[in-house]
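Fold this complex.
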Amino acid sequence: MDSEAARTARDSLELVFHMSNILETGLDRHTLSILIALCEMGINPESLAAIVKELRRESPPSSSSAPTTAKSAVP
Amino acid sequence: MEDDEQRIVDLVKELVHRLLYNAQNPNSSSSTVPARQKYNQALKYSLRILSSRMTPSIISDESAMVESIKRHLVTAGKSSEALTFADLYSKFSLKSGPGSVKNKWAVVYLLKTVSEDLKSRKNQSPNIISSGFLDSALAGGLPTLLENTEFNNNSGGIGNLIKNLNIEEFKDGPDNLLGLGYNFQSLSNMGKLKKNRGEGTLGDYSSNLKRLGDNLSGLRVGENVKTGLKGGVLMVSKDPENIREMAYREYADLVKEENEVLEEVLVRDVLYACQGIDGMYVKFDEKIDAYVLQDFIKVSRATGILVRKLCEIGWLFRKVKGYITETMARFPDEDVGTVGQAFCAALQDELSDYYKLLAVLEAQAMNPIPLVSESAHSGNYLSLRRLSVWFAEPMVKMRLMAVLVDCCKVLKGGAMAGAIHMHAQHGDPLVNDFMKRLLRRVCSPLFEMVRSWVLEGELEDIFAEFFILSQQVKAESLWREGYQLHAAMLPSFISQSLAERILRTGKSINFLRVCCDDRGWSNATTEAAAAAGTTTRRGGLGYGETDALESLITEAAKRIDKHLLDVLYNQYKFREHCLAIKRYLLLGQGDFVQYLMDIVGPELSEPANTISSFKLAGLLESAIRSSNAQYDDPDVLDRLRVKMMPHNTGDRGWDVFSLEYDARVPLNTVFTESVMSRYLQVFNFLWKLRRIEHALICAWKTMKPNCVTSQFFGNLPHAVKLQLILTSRKCQVLWDEMNHFVSNLQYYIMFEVLEVSWSNFLKEMEVAKDLDDLLRAHEKYLYSIVEKSLLGERSQNLNKTLFILFDLIVRFQSQADRLYEGITELLSRTTGSSFPSRSITKSQRKSNNKSSEPGSWLGEGRKDLTRHAGEFLRKMGKDIEKIAKEYSSVFEGFITQLPIQQHVDLKFLMFRLDFTEFYSHLRPSTGRKL
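Structure:
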């Protein structure tokens, strides 16, 4: 039963990851799984999206010297 | 709850970590102090964001969301990816049970928002390169978390530097912002998520903030993009989409204020009303006979009108449904009829289509109605407006049905079909198709009746719906009265002539079956059906196939009629019987008539009440046996009877005697009683004519000059002789005149009338196609005989004159008889006195008379005798003169009346009678006219 649940969860994650790729969100599996878990807890997806947006904006400038090019390169 | 919150915080930490150090080496970056600080600030900021937005700004609708994503992909030119996405999503949404994602919508929405954000950033990138923080300020307001002090004075974020906020910039509501800032701070310090559990302050503030944003956005957005650094204002107007959503929410509030009831609920109620069920707010009002919104519901005027309009279909539905149930309920008892039933079934079918539509609509009504937002044009939700579009076509149909129900309420059978047919004459193809479909169903019982009537002769019409009525009648009147067209039940798509043909065909079959006892017609009908290309099975015909129907009728009629005539001609020998009637009733068989006249003559001179019809029948029998009639068909002779007409006192046998011909079934359809009575009329006339002729011949027998009388005349005294010759001469002249008239009249009747009519009749019999033709031909035949024989209505005067003439001739005959009796008596007395012995031969007597005793006659009593004879002759002469005078005056009347008659043939009679122009010379006035 547990393995069944795990398999379903894995499949779901995989599907979401694919969708995410199609939509070019640039999120990896791990991040997605956290986001899904948060959504499951009833967190407003809009807020989550906002966090993702904000923090992503934060990281590129600190990580690369050419933020604009990096940003456009991500998706 | 605590666990949950702790878990959320943990997850958020993890998330922030992942996002911040995604691209870098996590181990190295987390250790540095600035990175640490940055991490903490990011975390705080995240938690604050999470606490700020309690509910999504749009209503959760997964399918609408997915639709929207797909459309975006398609418009971006990635249709294959859109397909893949749809496929993935469908798989994803199928996942259920343990381990699956429950809040799928949230996940999808998250993905969508993130991806849209990326895209918009891509588009806006030229504008935001000036500062790495510009976009962040625009989007969420996280300007001062980094150590970029150069921005501190200007940015004025809500974070730690909220006190640096330039208050003058917020003339509209700095307090709110300030308070909000503090509130936020305290919340973030607590590090906990506060759900909106009764606190309300956050909600209030955020809504205030939104209003502020609305107010300012118009002014500031452009400015923001350029200068970018306007603090709190920037925060509330973070992106245009959000503004729009806020506006929508405002609109929703407005709508909610105006309408107490949600549109979804109204849609559901309308759907109920459309099924004839009262909804929560929309109920049927008996008083005004319509579905209405309850008065206490506050809705906008437009909505009210829309609901009322939509509910029309409910009213119509109620009407149609009511009719169906009512009809079905009284079906077995009262005469609804099969057509009515079919009509109900067809309506029921149409309604089931309507039910299907309603089911689909109801399923759609389950979907919530989104506001006029981006995703609104996708998804299968149902608003009142959409409903009005859905109902456009069913409304037309329902209206039609209601109209039909109204007009058919009192009708049934063919009349109903006709009424519906009238409505089918419509230019709109939708209406036309609908009516055709309906009519096909409605008319099927009717066509079935036609089919079984035409092919089997059966009238399966329990409810009197068919346009043919049957009556229980005797076999002989079956053809004429047994079946009739019922004009009221004749649907207008069957023409009158076609209906008549249908009637005749079925009638023929019934006639064959009932009267002719014939079974051969079934072959004819199968043949006809095969020729017409239809089957003899049920349901072979339908509405709209008028051509097929017509060809079937034509074929069937052709064959059935032919078969019927064959049966009549061959099996029942119609022609032979007609001939027999002509021979015996119309006195065509001369020797028979002569003989009959001879032997029944004495009998008929008796008073009518003393004559026994049995004796006459015996005499008829012997007349047949002694004439050529004996070689005729015994069946024919068997039918010939003597008939005594009802008689008054003083009638002679001549007046009541007649012959009768028993036609029997089925020929009595042609020779009905009325026809036979006309034959009888003709017979009586002809019989009288014959009798007159016979009488004249008898008179001639006695009065024709012979040796005996001429010799006898010679011996008479001069005065007596002169008188005798004079009288007998008068008598001869009159006889001759009468004979001329009678023989010409008889010639005319026999040849000009009877034979000509007969030959015409034979010709028409040849070309007759059906029994009706035959009947018509026979009718014409009989009519022409009656008319030309001066027996018709128009020639009544002439006929009366003729009968007076006949009477005069009869009187003349008896007068002449008496005269010659007297003469013979005179003769016998004179000869008897001179020749006592009567045993001597005629020739001897003659010679004796002549030679030996010429003077003995003049012996005793001679004077007396002469005086007697003179007196007698004078009297007779006077009588004859009187008759002659009377005769010539009546005859003159007859002659003058003759040309007035319309018949051409009477001209021939006139011509014959007045061949020498004797009569026209007598009366120059009429002579000239001729």
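Chain B touches chain A through 70 residues (CB under 8 Å).
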